[in-house]
Amino acid sequence: MKPSLVLKMGQQLTMTPQLQQAIKLLQLSTLDLQQEIQEALEANPMLERQEDGDDFDNSDPLADGDELASAPAQEITFQDAPANAELPDENQWSEQIPSELPVDTAWEDIYQTSASSLPSNDDDEWDFTARTSAGESLQSHLLWQLNLAPMSDKDRLIAMTLIDAISNDGYLEETLEELLESFDPELDIELDEIEAVLHRIQQFEPAGIGARDLRECLLLQLRQLPANTPWLKETQRLVSDYLDLLGSRDYSQIMRRMKLREEELKPAIDLIQRLNPRPGSQIESSEPEYVVPDVIVRKDSGRWLVELNQEAMPRLRVNPQYAGMVKRADSSSDNTFMRNQLQEARWFIKSLQSRNETLMKVASQIVEHQRGFLEYGEEAMKPLVLHDIAEAVGMHESTISRVTTQKFMHTPRGIFELKYFFSSHVSTAEGGECSSTAIRAIIKKLVAAENAKKPLSDSKIAGLLEAQGIQVARRTVAKYRESLGIAPSSERKRLM
């Protein structure tokens, strides 16, 4: 069999670079889109950001029809300077600025700068650490306290090893025997020394740090409370001896063994509930994450209005000066480069406009379908799937999925991801449909109003939903309850 050349003709679908760019921008979140725009501004000299107050012609001498469309300009009012204001002339400036500054002086002592204009430290409202400090890890917080504690070099080495073995929740993850094996035998470290240093660390802040289990964590926090705290001894005994019974909500057994009445056991349990089972979580190690809404929904004169968040959507334009340098008949390398950059800038702006238009169409249809949620809350949420929005706007479901991913809507009820408004449905007794989000809201409401002594079981909740015409199985109720972070009925039992 010898090699040969075969010519075939066929048709296939391919995506142009412009379409690929439009799809890429469509699925980006607001923060990622801003970064993408910044990279485009740095790479393409034809693109520039249009700031508020700019007044110039956006027309492109080489644009073909409506290939380049600019964002609507905002009307900005400028304040004129006072009529009697006088600007110093050149001689006045030279008299005000000396050639040399006096010895042992700083620039801020002579001239007002942004740093010297900050509020003084005496101002109670000025908190420097709140504005400049970064997130602190638990280990760095414990090491800072370790540096303030007087210790020998040997104990300090043990303490640093113990701190490294503490988890983010504040618990010691390794046993003392395992830590002892990790040390060099030449140091001649004994198990009692490690335990003594651990007791020192357990006195650090936050209270309960360095515990080996939940019982020890709660006892450490109770020991740091004032001695005159009401019901402190009973609470310590309850945690030390009957924590397992407390976890299983066996209050009758606890009262019988501790010889306490219900009104005496309740304050002890309340004191335990005020403790922190995860003391390490008090030290925030991560920076806060902010959500920038893409769409803003508001009610005006009885109508719900949908608009893009202009603060998150920068306006771009083609630089008219550079665009005017492009010559039609010139085929030089410089002119070809500028023409290519001009075409890329047009397509980038067009892709941004297409993204905004698609986002507005989808958001408007979501608001139209979920008007009941905006008016009355989660219980009025209607079932909605991607196919419904795709049919309404005449797009494919994959496009709707890209639009609703990592896009957020600001409503009077809060900020929600667009995917939040999509949910499956459950049949009702009347033949209608009820959204799973609405069912979750009803379950949350029923649990909040239940009797703490006799919490509602999943079967009971399913019966109450069926009484309202919503046919939900017990296992479905359990799934919705777990998604809401609600414990089973056996763990929700409380003393009144």
TrEMBL record:
<dbReference type="GO" id="GO:0000428">
    <property type="term" value="C:DNA-directed RNA polymerase complex"/>
</dbReference>
<dbReference type="GO" id="GO:0032993">
    <property type="term" value="C:protein-DNA complex"/>
</dbReference>
<keyword id="KW-0808">Transferase</keyword>
<dbReference type="GO" id="GO:0006352">
    <property type="term" value="P:DNA-templated transcription initiation"/>
</dbReference>
<dbReference type="GO" id="GO:0016779">
    <property type="term" value="F:nucleotidyltransferase activity"/>
</dbReference>
<comment type="function">
    <text>Sigma factors are initiation factors that promote the attachment of RNA polymerase to specific initiation sites and are then released.</text>
</comment>
<dbReference type="Pfam" id="PF04552">
    <property type="entry name" value="Sigma54_DBD"/>
</dbReference>
<dbReference type="InterPro" id="IPR038709">
    <property type="entry name" value="RpoN_core-bd_sf"/>
</dbReference>
<keyword id="KW-0731">Sigma factor</keyword>
<dbReference type="GO" id="GO:0001216">
    <property type="term" value="F:DNA-binding transcription activator activity"/>
</dbReference>
<feature type="compositionally biased region" description="Acidic residues">
    <location>
        <begin position="51"/>
        <end position="66"/>
    </location>
</feature>
<keyword id="KW-0804">Transcription</keyword>
<keyword id="KW-0238">DNA-binding</keyword>
<dbReference type="GO" id="GO:0016987">
    <property type="term" value="F:sigma factor activity"/>
</dbReference>
<feature type="region of interest" description="Disordered">
    <location>
        <begin position="45"/>
        <end position="66"/>
    </location>
</feature>
<protein>
    <recommendedName>
        <fullName>RNA polymerase sigma-54 factor</fullName>
    </recommendedName>
</protein>
<keyword id="KW-0805">Transcription regulation</keyword>
<feature type="domain" description="RNA polymerase sigma factor 54 DNA-binding">
    <location>
        <begin position="336"/>
        <end position="494"/>
    </location>
</feature>
<dbReference type="InterPro" id="IPR000394">
    <property type="entry name" value="RNA_pol_sigma_54"/>
</dbReference>
<dbReference type="InterPro" id="IPR007634">
    <property type="entry name" value="RNA_pol_sigma_54_DNA-bd"/>
</dbReference>
<comment type="similarity">
    <text>Belongs to the sigma-54 factor family.</text>
</comment>
<keyword id="KW-0548">Nucleotidyltransferase</keyword>
<dbReference type="InterPro" id="IPR007046">
    <property type="entry name" value="RNA_pol_sigma_54_core-bd"/>
</dbReference>
<feature type="domain" description="RNA polymerase sigma factor 54 core-binding">
    <location>
        <begin position="128"/>
        <end position="322"/>
    </location>
</feature>
<dbReference type="Pfam" id="PF04963">
    <property type="entry name" value="Sigma54_CBD"/>
</dbReference>
<keyword id="KW-0240">DNA-directed RNA polymerase</keyword>
<dbReference type="GO" id="GO:0000976">
    <property type="term" value="F:transcription cis-regulatory region binding"/>
</dbReference>
<dbReference type="Pfam" id="PF00309">
    <property type="entry name" value="Sigma54_AID"/>
</dbReference>
